[in-house]
Amino acid sequence: MTAGPTNAANTVELPVQVPSDRPEPAYGSDLVVDLLHALGIRYLPLNPGSSFRGLHDSLVNHGGNRAPQLLLCLHEEIAISLAHGYAKASGGLGAAAVHDLVGLMHASMAVYNAFCDRTPLLVLGGSGPADPAQRRPVDWLHSATTQAELVRDYVVWDAEPITPQALVADVLRAHQRALSAPRGPAYVSLDATVAVTLS
Amino acid sequence: MVNHAPYDEPQWGSDVMADIVRKLGFRFVSLNPGATFRGLHDSLVNYAGNEVTMIECPHEKIAMGLAHGFTKASGEPMAVILHDLVGLLHGTMGVYYAYIDRVPVFVMGGSGPAAHDKRRPNIDWIHSANVQGEAVRPYTKWDHEPRTVESLTTIMARAYRVAMTEPRGPVYIALDAGLQEQPLDTPVPTDDLARLAALPSRIGPDPEALRRLAEVLCAAERPVMVLGYAGRDPAAFGQLTELAELVGVGAIDTGLRLNFPNQHQLSVTGSDAMESADCVLFVDVKDMGKPTQKLDSITRTVVSRLPAECSILDLGFNDLGLSSWSEDYAELLATDVQVTADTSLALPMLLEECRRLVSADDDARRTARDRQRDDLGQAHDKTWAAWSAAVSAASKEVPVATATLAAEVWEVVKEHDWVLTAGAAADWAMRTWNFDQPHRHPGRQMGTATQIGMSLGVALAHKGTGRLVVDLQPDGDLMFDAGALWVASKYELPLLVVMFNNRAYYNDWEHQERVAKQRGTPVERANIGMEIDGPAPDFAALARSFSWCAEGPITDPAEVQAAVRRAAEHVTSTGLPALVDVICAPK
C-alpha cells in the first residue's frame, strides 16, 4: 500500500516572525485565543467579519495562527458544517466563528443541524458594539436585542459577555455545556469593543 | 383560468392555496423544492395551470434575494416558498434584508404536518418547531400558521395587505403539509379574495405640520435634503427634482433607492454641502445617522456632520414598523418638525406648499435663492471634477482601478437602455454614470452575500424590455452563492455580469489593517484569512460550466471596454447572460 501525502503539519498562512513564546495577552481577544489554545482547539473555521476583527488579529498575531489555526470558509454555513464534521470524526469539540447578526443568520441551519445531531460545537460570534457611542452606522443594521435569540432555541447555551472577565468565564462554560451530555452547540457572542479592551 | 389537473374544481387543500396565490396576482414564485410543500407544488403546476411561473433556485437565500430584487425593480410583489424549518433557516438572512430594505416579499413555507400521525419518522419531526414562524418573527411584519383550509383565504389576504401596506416588508405564512394534502369535502370559496386583500389607503400628512415643514425649508438659506426610500415610487424622481429646483435645495442620495438624477446640478452627494447646511430635510429615511455622520474606522469614533444650529425636518414613516429586536432604526436624532406620512402622497402636497411660499419671494429673496442654487451647483461641479480627475489618474493602473472599471463599463453601457442591478463598485458607478431615469437603479445591495441573488431578480423584472441589465459583481459576494449563475441560464435572464474581482474579502482586509495600526501588529499579515486567492477562482470557467458566455480574467485596463462590449452584444442579441472577469484593485 502506497502512503498518500502527509500534510499533518499545516503550513498554510503561517505568519512569519511570530515570537516562539506566547506573549502576555494585551486584549480581550488575546485572552480568547489563549483560552482556545488551552482548551486544545486546533482549528477555527470562519468567514471574516468586522465584528470580530479584534479576534482575527489576535488569532494571527497573538496566537501565530497555530492551535487554533483559522480556516477561511466562503460561507458561514460551511464553517459551521466543517466544525460539525470535525467534531464527529475527532470525538471532540468543533469550534467556529461567525460575523455578527447576518453571519449568524447564514449559519443558522448548520447550527440547527448540529443541535439535532447532538454535536458539541463552540460557536463564537462578533456582536455590537453594545455601546451605541461606539457603533458605526452599519453596526446598527447588524445589531439586535439580543443577537443570540436567533439561535437560542437550538443551542445548549448562549451568552453575551460584557467584560473580559465574563468573556473568559462564558467561553469556559460554553465549552463545558457543549461537551456535557446531551451534547450540542453553544454560542458566545463577543462584543466588538469588549474584545479590544483589557484592564 | 388554465387547469392542467384531471379535475375542474379544487379537490385538495393546496388547490385552494394555489387559487389564492394566483388570484393575488403573483406572476412568479421562487423556490427551492421541498417535501413539505409537495402538495402546493403539484397544485401550482397542475390545478393552477403553471400560470405562476416557478423560478427554481439552488439555495433558499437566492430565492429570497431574487424576489427582493424583482420587487424593487418592478414595484410588483413576488412570492417565495421555503421548505419547512431548515429551508426557512437557510432563507433567514434574505428575509432579514427584505425587512431592513422594506421590501414586501410574500414568503410561504411548508411545515409539519402538525398532525403527529401524518408525520414521516424522524425527518418531519426534526424539521418541525413550536412554532416555525418564530425563526423569522422578529424581522417579518407578520406571520401566521393557518389551522384550517377554510381560514386560508382571510389569512393569506391579510398577509398580502400587511406586506404591501407602507412601510412595506416581508410576511411569512407556514402552510401545514397535512392541510395541503387534505381532500376537500365541501367547496371552499375564495371569491371574496380581491376585497379581502384590497390595500388600505396611504398615510397622508397632517396638513398643519406639513405647512410648518415647508415654511422652515423655504426660509432656509443653505438647505439640503437626504433621500432614503422615496424613490420606491418612480414619480418621486421628478417630484424631488422639481422641489430641489423650486426651493434651491441640495440633494444627497443614500442610494437605498434611486431618488435623484446624480448628474443634476443640485445633486450634492459626496460634497461637503451638509457641513454648512442650516436645514436638513430627511425624505423617507429610516437611519438618519449614516448619511449625517463621519466615521473614524480605526477608533469607531462617530462625529456628526450637522452644524449645531441646523434645523432638522423629517418627512417619512417615523417609528412605524419599529422592531423590538432588530436595531436597524439606529440612534434617535433630535428633530424640529416631524411629519408622519407616505412620501408618495406627501411630496406633491409639499411641492404645492412650497410653490405658494416661493411665489411670495421678494426681489432680494429671489436673488438670494438664485445664489443658493448657484452655490449648490458649484459644490456639485467641484465634487464631480475631483471624481473625474481620479478616474483619469487611475486609468492605466494595474490591477484595474475600481474607478477605471466603472468608467470603462460606462462607455459600453451608455450605448444601451440600461439598468444597474445593485452595488455600484464601491460607489464608482454613481460617480461616472448618468442616472437620468428612475428605472436605472432599484437601489444598492444590502451588504455581502446579497448582490447576485438580487441581480437575478432585477434581470427578471426587466426581461423582455430590451434593456441591458448590468451587475458590477464582487467576487466574495458571488462565492457565497455561486449556484445563482445557474438560475440566469435556466430562465434566460439578460444579465451582464462584470466582475469587480479583487480576490479578497477586501472590506474585512481593511479592517485587519486598521486593527494592526491600532495594536502595532504587522500590517503585512492582514491578508491571512482574507484572500480569495491561492487558488484564485476562475469565474469565467465557473460561468461557462452553467452555459454562460464568459471571458477573463482580464488584467489590462485597455482590454476591459472591448471585452464588456462583446459581452453586452451577446446579452442584447441573445437575451442570455454573459460574464467578464476583471481583476481589480482593492477599491
User: What value does the Rg of chain A take, in angstroms?
Assistant: 16 Å
What is the total tally of β strands of chain A?
6
Gross morphology of chain A is globular
Give the low-confidence spans of chain A: none
Say how many strands of chain B there are: 18
Order of helices and strands of chain A: HEHEHEHEHEHE
SS-based class of chain A: alpha/beta
Side by side, the strands of the main sheet of chain B go: 2-1-3-4-6-5
Structure description:
The complex is a heterodimer of chains A (199) and B (587). Chain A is of the alpha/beta class and 199 residues long. Chain A contains six helices and six strands; from the N terminus they run αβαβαβαβαβαβ. In chain A, helix 2 links the parallel strand 1 and strand 2. Chain B has three domains: 13-196, Thiamin diphosphate (ThDP)-binding fold, Pyr/PP domains (Rossmann fold); 207-383, TPP-binding domain (Rossmann fold, 3-Layer(aba) Sandwich), CATH 3.40.50; 395-583, Thiamin diphosphate (ThDP)-binding fold, Pyr/PP domains (Rossmann fold). Chain B contains 20 helices and 18 strands. In chain B, the strands form four sheets. In chain B, strands 2-1-3-4-6-5 form a six-stranded parallel beta sheet, with helices on both faces. A five-stranded parallel beta sheet of chain B has the order 8-7-9-12-13, covered by helices on one side. Chain B is globular. The interface between A and B is large, with 51 and 55 residues.
